[in-house]
Amino acid sequence: MKLLAATLTSLVVALNTNIAAADSVLFVGNSFTYGYGSAVKFYRSDSVTDLNNQGIGGVPALFKAFAEQAGLDLDVYLETEPGSNFDFHLDKKRGIIGRRPWDIVVLQGHSTLDSDAHGDPAKLISTTAQMSELLRTRNPEVDIYLTATWSRADMTHQPNHVWSGKPIEQMALDLRAGYEKAAINAQGVVSVNPVGEAWTQAMTLGLADDNPYNGLEYGKIDLWTFDHYHASAYGSYLEALVVFGNVTGLDPRSLGANECAAFELGMQNTVVAGLQEAAFRQLAADGRVTAAPLEVPTGVQAQPCTPSR
């Protein structure tokens, strides 16, 4: 019974994945990737390889935990720098990123598309193409995924920003549009991880609060951390669910409400189920997953589990 949840999950999802076992997965990004401001930043850092030797676990470690529970043997790496766009990684980390061929690469740029020109995708488009070229010189068959992040409460509910006064979902839609343009302009990009829109789904479902500046509504979670623009543990968890589902093709709900990483991070299983539902709804709307929720046999109660390190 002790590992029943993990066993059931592996049996369900391992049969349906479109990802090969033993693939290498590299995450390139910034503080949105490593989970600044929450317990996710150093979560299970020993389960992944931080190429900058900073001991970070972050979203890559959550992705690794999900993969293990799905019966996938993946080697997960990360290269992150706070506040960075792709131009930084190309200029300062080219040797690290290009040291070996990668099977799968997840790229996440600045939270405003361009740190110097908020909302302008031009730099993202050009540097995504350059990053693709670098990665494809080592492996022409590499699968690249771009992560479109979420609406920042500080840039929507506070004045003097591009998205000030607009609906909370608008920034996420604009970021997605920018990443889609970048994807079209670069070879090897499979699709965009719709993280920001999954956040909006969580708000629409009534699970997450949409404005931390007027207090947290009773019974809802805050996807942002204390600064109202980085992700809380809940927000990073939802990010990881979307990336996992998009890359593997597996229904995030197949991990189950007793999913191990959430249990270790102290999340209620009702909240976990809600986050998985939000991720599924957005991925299904994009045609990236088909419904395959975890079904526990009648009379059997799944127990919290711990993935191997």
Describe this structure in words.
The chain is of the alpha/beta class and 309 residues long. It has a single domain (4-285), classed as SGNH hydrolase (Rossmann fold). The chain is built from 12 helices and 6 strands. It has helices at 4-13, 31-34, 58-69, 86-92, 94-97, 122-138, 153-156, 168-184, 195-204, 233-248, 260-264, 269-285; strands at 24-29, 49-50, 75-80, 104-107, 143-148, 189-194. α6 links the parallel β4 (104-107) and β5 (143-148). It is globular and about 50 Å long. The chain starts with a helix and ends in a 24-residue tail after the last helix. The model is unreliable at 1-15 (pLDDT under 50).
Question: What distinguishing features does this structure have?
Answer:
Rossmann fold; alpha/beta; disordered N terminus; 309 residues; 6-stranded parallel beta sheet
Helix-strand layout with pairing:
Blueprint: H1 4-13, E1 24-29, H2 31-34, E2 49-50, H3 58-69, E3 75-80, H4 86-92, H5 94-97, E4 104-107, H6 122-138, E5 143-148, H7 153-156, H8 168-184, E6 189-194, H9 195-204, H10 233-248, H11 260-264, H12 269-285
Parallel strand pairs: 1-3, 1-4, 2-3, 4-5, 5-6
Helix pairs in contact: 3-10, 6-8, 8-9, 9-10, 9-12, 10-12
